[in-house]
Amino acid sequence: MLIFEHSSKGRQGAPQSPVEKASISAIPENLLRKDSAALPEVSELQAVRHYTRLSQKNFSIDTEFYPLGSCTMKYNPRACNTLAMLPGFLNAHPLTPDEQNQGFLSCMYDLQSMLCEATGMAAFSLAPMAGAQGEFSGVAMIDAYHKSRGEHERKEILIPDAAHGTNPATAVMCGFKVREIPTLDNGDVDIDALKQCVGPQTAGLMLTNPSTLGVFERNIEAIAKVIHDAGGLLYYDGANLNAILGKIRPGDMGFDVIHSNLHKTFSTPHGGGGPGSGAVGVAKRLIPFLPLPTVTQEDGNYRYLTAKDCPQSIGRLSAFMGNPGVLLRAFIYMRFLGREGMVRVAEFATLNANYMMAEAKRRGFTLAIDHRRASHEFIITLKNEARDYHVSAMDFAKRLLDLGYHAPTTYFPLLVPECLLIEPTESEAKEALDGFMDALEQILHEAETNPELLHAAPQTLPVKRLDEVRAAKQLDLTYKMS
Amino acid sequence: MPFIPHTEQEITQMLATIGVDSMEDLFDEIPAHLRAPELKAIPKGMTEMEVSRLMHQRADKNTKALCFLGAGAYQHHIPAAVWEITTRGEFYSAYTPYQAEASQGTLQLTYEFQSMIAALTAMDVSNASMYDGASSLAEAILMSVRANRKSKSRKILIPTSVNPVYRKTAETIVKGQQIDLVEVPYDGSTGTVTLEQIKQQGEGDITAVVLQQPNFFGCLEAVDEITNWAHDNNILVIAVVNPLLITVLNPPGQWGVSGVDIACGDGQPLGAPMSAGGPYYGLLCCKQALVRQMPGRIVGRTVDLDGKEGFVLTLQAREQHIRRSKATSNICTNQGLVVTASTIHMAIMGAKGLENTAAACFANNNLLVEKLTAISGVKKAFSGTHFHETVLQLDVNAAQVLRALMAKGILGGFDLSEDYPELGTAIMVCTTEMRSEADIEAYATAMQEVLAAGVVSAEKVPATPEVV
What is the pLDDT of residues B51-68, one digit of tens each? Predict the structure, then answer.
């Protein structure tokens, strides 16, 4: 039932606004609204009950194991939320003079510094609102850098075929042509193909390392050399930073620019789709181009840097600076971890993934890439099961929901047929991993003996499989109250 | 170990299952000489008690001054229930609802959000949100270029009465795509843009015109007239609105004869605390005919195998994870959690509650302006009606006045001198429903004292009466 269907004309149950409507008759009549907006009219209790019940129709990290590959669904510590919502932060107007905003600005400055240290980059901007905006900033900086050197012909961005969809979409948004680089069966970039593709038209390469195939790119130094020798820059997609935090740093691998999804590695909540943060870090030569604003410190006083300080910046990406509430949560999480905690993140994320991969193999599953170490995630391919039992990766995913586990990422990366991309994260205990593997093994058995159970899944959730074709063809995007 | 549950015994078992001797062996594919040094610049880890003390100390350093500052972010009352429910783990720690059956809570809520935003704006459809108002305008501009097939110019008219940071953000985001943002000056006496000025800049082929209502100065634009002119000339209209204020102001879907084509704005006034600048969310709505040009996530209502109502992400063929380099935008994330808060906020407030809130903002601003302009040396910069923000002309240095006010516990407004040097020494003041009569009185008294004390008169800056 929709909130609109709880509505009764004339109901007003909440003492949340001025009781009397002040006069607005001084506003010219043609500029006034003629009717009231058709919002639901419900009591506060009705609203509270409705949305509490809706929340219970969600899977979440707080209620289920969520091994969603490439998404890093780790525990979101409650204290990060509580402390980021202290009144001193919530009531801070974004245009408060810097001298009166020192508490907040000092957190942002420290966050920039910690991100630099953790990634080996020279400077960071927290301005990007999400991973895709981080990518946008990074590619726009690459563009600005080449143009500042008069190299206007560098109009091509190279992207491995295993990359996230945002990579090519971003390059196009920045006015570049995209050229795809193939990946070898062992998961490494095809470096011979890469050599064929570089030239004076190359602006840069966007790389995720460890890749979306869940393996570390072993030839990273050789790749960096090919790109740099051609005059291009190397972009690091930080989606998988959790795998290497404190173990190896993008800056030391030769990357010139990186974005970090703070909602992955630094545990800010996914919130059912956002808000995120795509903080962007650069090597020294790209500092002048960082997006605005950034925070600087002089003699213990913190202030925003603006266009006046940084004339070569690619500019602003939002009205203020990124998503400060998200940035505060990341800052708090990093102070919890400290330097020693960061290394443990990578270690235990990797331990959990490799343990599950070994278990998967032992229980009869086919690995997409065998005989290599998993990073913080690994891939099972169900192409044999699909052929033998006519069940798909989607069927496995839906059956997992019935058994109380959120499904892994399915059908990504696009290179691997019928795949499950599994990322346990470091915050899950061994029991959770074993329970999940038991469920997967049970489903494998069911696929063989009773595939209908898979096809009909899920059965235990608020709805069964939904008609997506109908949703797209008979568009129903808004409820109209009569 | 913070947030890591493993016991020594489990670690041993797990390493044995993998077939390695130590944790280090798991990283043996990484070249040894590239391994990270100790991260010395990062402090050591802390307990929750220590982190809590640190954060309270820092939060307490921020000002508690009375806020009369707006300029794109506003201090409104938010019902306690809004963030109580929003931060329930089931909303807070859920992922993007790609597994629809396990995400009906978020999906239905988003459908309700889209419905409420469409009702507020009187537009046909809304998406599931953009990052913020400024980036939403940038996406609206890109969308208009895709949608207006009759126009080849990629030329967009933007009055300078549109929020300056929105214009700067749009510039950053669209400049890679050969789009020409043409500024139209505002009228120096009214603070609004006239149709004549738009026509002057608008000769030849124009793709779209942007109109903010109320505009950055809080003044009300002649939206009907300009919308009709644009549509008569095959120009799309992009509205930038404050979603709270359109509960009493004519909504963009009803501007002119046929309403605007795309409406955007910042959702912050509907349930998001100021929080130093975010997270907020961008709203983005359009006419039905343009829905396939819309960027970002959209939720649709459908049925399941049994014919039972359910909700899914739809029209995904527009998006980057399917279309890759041919997507309508690179956007992936929306501002889901803030959308959750905003939906609950709208449901609890209802249209009447929001209308009364908007009306109170207006009335308080009139009262404040009346009190402040009664002080010698303070006058309104523009004629005409203001909504809840007003530009005041001072005859002394604005930055110094604001600093002196701050010393008296008043966050007195926005200094316009950097973005609008032609206004000389002007500030923009804002009131929401949160400012009581006593607050307003306190501001007026403080202003009187500041100006009377003459602390700033020594550096008196002449007001430039220049008319744009």
Answer: 999 999 999 998 889 999
CATH number of the domain at A345-468, out of 2.40.50.140, 3.40.50.2300, 3.40.50.300, 3.90.1150.10?
3.90.1150.10
Q: Out of B109, B129, B356, whose CB is closest to A17?
A: B356
Q: Residues of B with CB below 8 A from A465's CB? A: 101, 304-305
Residue pLDDT, tens place only, A13-33: 779 999 899 999 999 999 999
Of B60, B433, B88, B73, residue with least CA distance to B272:
B73
**CATH code assigned at B440:** 3.90.1150.10
pLDDT at position B322 is 75
pLDDT band (50, 70, 90) for residue B463 = very low
Chain A residues within 8 A of B62 when measuring between CB atoms: 88-89, 91-92, 96, 100-104
Contact B30 A248 (CB under 8 A): yes
Cβ pair A88:B60 closer than 8 A: yes
Q: Which CATH number fits domain A79-337: 2.40.30.170, 3.40.640.10, 3.30.420.40, 3.40.190.10?
A: 3.40.640.10
Which residues make Cβ contacts (< 8 Å) with residue A409, sequence separation at least 6?
A68, A69, A70, A71, A420, A421, A422, A423
- pLDDT at site B455: 59
In a domain, B197, yes or no: yes
* Minimal Cβ distance to A461: which of B55, B102, B303: B102
Cβ contacts of residue A84 below 8 Å, gap of 6+? Answer: A325, A328, A329, A332, B55
* Residue numbers in B near A113 (CB within 8 A): 41
A323 and chain B: CB distance < 8 Å anywhere? yes
Q: What's the pLDDT score for residue B462?
A: 42
Residue spans of alpha helices (H) in B255-327 = 320-323
**The residue to which tokens 């408060």 are assigned:** A96
ipTM over 0.90: yes
Q: Tell whether A47 is within 8 A of chain B (Cβ).
A: yes
The reply to whether residue B336 touches residue A401, judged by beta carbons under 8 angstroms, is no
In angstroms, rounded to a whole number, what is the distance separating the alpha carbons of residues A264 and A164? 15
- Closest listed residue to residue B340, CA positions, set A257, A413, A447, A269: A269
Residue of A nearest to B31 (CA): A218
**Hey, is the C-beta of A29 within 8 angstroms of any chain B C-beta?**
no
Would the CB atoms of B85 and A52 count as touching at under 8 Å?
Answer: yes
Q: Tell which of B310, B345, B380 closes a domain.
A: B345
Whether residue B197 contacts residue B184, with contact meaning beta carbons closer than 8 Å, is answered with yes
Taking contacts as CB-CB distances below 8 angstroms, the residues of chain A near B363 are 22-24
What lies within 8 Å, CB to CB, of B384 at 6+ separation is B190, B191, B192, B219, B220
A84: which 2 tokens? 């980021």
Nearest-CA distance from B78 to chain A in Å?
A: 8
User: pLDDT grade, residue B329 (50/70/90)?
Assistant: confident
Q: Which of B327, B345, B363 corresponds to the end of one domain?
A: B345
Strand partners for B378: B394
Least confident stretch, A159-168, B76-85, B339-348: A159-168
Token duo for residue B463: 């007001």
| pLDDT of B466 | 42
Q: Is residue B56 part of a domain?
A: no
Which amino acid appears at position A267 of this protein? S
pLDDT for res B325: 76
Chain A residue numbers touching B135 (CB-CB < 8 A)? 129, 133, 317-318
Nearest to B310 by CA among B298, B297, B319, B299: B299
Residue B263 belongs to a domain = yes
SS3 assignment, position A6: helix
Tell if the CB–CB gap between A71 and B101 is shorter than 8 Å. Answer: no
